[in-house]
């Protein structure tokens, strides 16, 4: 696991810094102003509905279905986005222990955490519910970035915020964090890094606290199998190496470079010319101290906060700017929330759209004027209704071509109008790869019911299929505004 000490680690520590930084209690008071629901128990049915039956399309774990405990994105009935962690069947056999642990973690509230807001314990199911973080993990932004590498100022901010999160947890008696790594650091709607609350709970049956490569595991854990606060600091040191290098470098290799005074070889080549050697040296020294072989020689969480505070750069620049997340995306995520139908249309998830439309039935047709004379009723209505019934049966059976023919017969009959029929035929056209026809039907549904959000959402799905993404996003926004208006009324 590398050397037992480091010359950097033994000779350096910032003794001249005063502890005039915001303490965890200050962060705690600040976060009380934010809208985070109290911890509660959810039913399995609630979470199944929120995740479309734990659909694979809702999986947000970066290892997908192969992850031992899968995380899903979901939406509650109140429009709140959530992350749902579903443990495998062998985890947490003791119901009381699971519930007690979840409640204790659920008492924590900090703007540096992706907070736990609930749990579910029914039969063999064990699920945790947390705030949803829309901008993925540190692993994604450091190791698998698309548009731009993470800026130096943002890397320093990640380290600082993460240290604050650990300091807060320690102050609340939750100093033990299991398997701290780049997958556990998430980014919220404003691009701010947060520590996942899931690592504050331990799988009670297998007793494993580290699932990563043993090369990154604290040496004392290999000896005793126990996690201590000092073990968490060691893992924090490996995260500092990640931030410095943009790669997942084993601590033993990094310490060899540091002892050989070749620390610049650790630095991410993408950062060349964008950081000062002094800053790099300070962060390397802190990492080396965290990675000391002897746990007692490592700093505590509060010391990490004190050491990282003076290194912060561009503190006036919002995180979403440093991260390259557009301000519109950041602000709209917090102000306009899509319903499950809107979300399904934003992903053009046609299977989910079909399920939602089927469950909605025709309740949104209420109030649509269908004025028919008695003569028209007696001579034509039965034939028209039969066409609609055949269309509904085909729609339910996912025979979308037959549904198109039958709904067309209903529409062409001209005796009744139904925005839902146009919405259903719109989806049928999408299923048959006919997005232009689908767009026409969604627009016709809007003509009949100008304030119906579903008509806008379906237009967005058709526009996405046509490659008109900007128009689609604007239409999604229109639909979400109509939904918000409905809720206010």
TrEMBL record:
SUPFAM superfamilies hit by this protein: Protein kinase-like (PK-like), TPR-like
Bilayer topology term: Lipid-anchor
Cell compartments where the protein resides: Cell membrane
GO biological process: brassinosteroid mediated signaling pathway
Enzyme class: transferase
Origin superkingdom: Eukaryota
GO cellular component: plasma membrane
Domain named Protein kinase: residues: 57-323
Enzyme Commission identifier(s): 2.7.11.1
GO molecular function: ATP binding; protein serine/threonine kinase activity
Record has Nucleotide-binding as a keyword: yes
UniProt KW keywords: ATP-binding, Brassinosteroid signaling pathway, Cell membrane, Kinase, Lipoprotein, Membrane, Myristate, Nucleotide-binding, Serine/threonine-protein kinase, Transferase
Reaction equation(s) it catalyzes: L-seryl-[protein] + ATP = O-phospho-L-seryl-[protein] + ADP + H(+); L-threonyl-[protein] + ATP = O-phospho-L-threonyl-[protein] + ADP + H(+)
Main location: membrane
Family: Belongs to the protein kinase superfamily. Ser/Thr protein kinase family.
Name of this chain's protein: non-specific serine/threonine protein kinase
Organism annotation: Rhododendron griersonianum
């Amino acid at each position: 696991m590398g050397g037992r000490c480091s010359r950097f680690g033994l000779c350096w520590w910032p003794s001249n810094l005063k502890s005039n930084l915001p303490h965890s209690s200050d962060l705690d008071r600040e976060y009380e102003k934010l809208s985070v629901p109290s911890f509660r128990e959810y039913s399995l049915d609630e979470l199944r509905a929120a995740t479309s039956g734990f659909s694979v399309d809702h999986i947000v774990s970066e290892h997908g279905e192969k992850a031992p405990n899968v995380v899903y994105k979901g939406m509650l009935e109140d429009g709140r986005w959530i992350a749902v962690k579903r443990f495998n069947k062998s985890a947490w056999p003791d119901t009381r222990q699971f519930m007690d642990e979840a409640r204790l973690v659920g008492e924590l509230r900090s703007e540096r955490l992706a907070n736990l807001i609930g749990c579910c314990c029914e039969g063999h199911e064990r699920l945790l519910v947390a705030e949803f973080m829309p901008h993925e993990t540190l692993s994604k932004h450091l190791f698998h970035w698309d548009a731009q590498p993470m800026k130096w100022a943002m890397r320093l901010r990640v380290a600082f915020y993460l240290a604050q999160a650990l300091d807060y947890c320690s102050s609340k008696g939750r100093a033990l964090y299991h398997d701290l790594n780049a997958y556990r650091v998430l980014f919220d709607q404003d691009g701010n890094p947060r520590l996942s609350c899931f690592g504050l709970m331990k799988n009670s049956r297998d007793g494993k606290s580290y699932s990563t490569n043993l090369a990154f595991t604290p040496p004392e854990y290999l000896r005793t199998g126990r996690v201590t606060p000092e073990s968490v600091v060691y893992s924090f040191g490996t995260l500092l190496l990640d931030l410095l290098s943009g790669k997942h470098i084993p601590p033993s290799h990094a310490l060899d470079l540091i002892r050989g005074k070749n620390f610049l070889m650790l630095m991410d080549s993408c950062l060349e010319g964008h950081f000062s050697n002094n800053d790099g040296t300070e962060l390397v020294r802190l990492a080396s101290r965290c990675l000391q072989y002897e746990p007692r020689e490592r700093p505590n969480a509060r010391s990490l906060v004190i050491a990282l505070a003076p290194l912060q750069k561009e503190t006036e620049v919002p995180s979403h700017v440093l991260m390259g997340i557009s301000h519109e995306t950041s602000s709209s995520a917090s102000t306009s929330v899509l319903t499950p139908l809107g979300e399904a249309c934003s992903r053009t998830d046609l299977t989910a759209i079909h399920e939602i439309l089927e469950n909605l039935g025709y309740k949104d047709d209420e109030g649509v004027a269908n004025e028919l004379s008695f003569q028209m009723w007696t001579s034509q209505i039965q034939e028209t209704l039969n066409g609609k019934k055949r269309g509904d049966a085909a729609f339910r059976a996912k025979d979308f071509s037959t549904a198109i023919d039958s709904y067309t017969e209903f529409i062409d009959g001209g005796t009744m109008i139904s925005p839902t029929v146009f919405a259903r035929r719109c989806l049928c056209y999408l299923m048959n790869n006919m997005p232009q026809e689908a767009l026409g039907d969604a627009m016709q549904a809007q003509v009949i019911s100008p304030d119906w959000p579903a008509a806008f959402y379906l237009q967005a799905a058709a526009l996405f299929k046509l490659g008109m993404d900007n128009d689609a996003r604007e239409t999604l926004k229109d639909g979400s505004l109509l939904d918000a208006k409905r809720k206010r009324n």
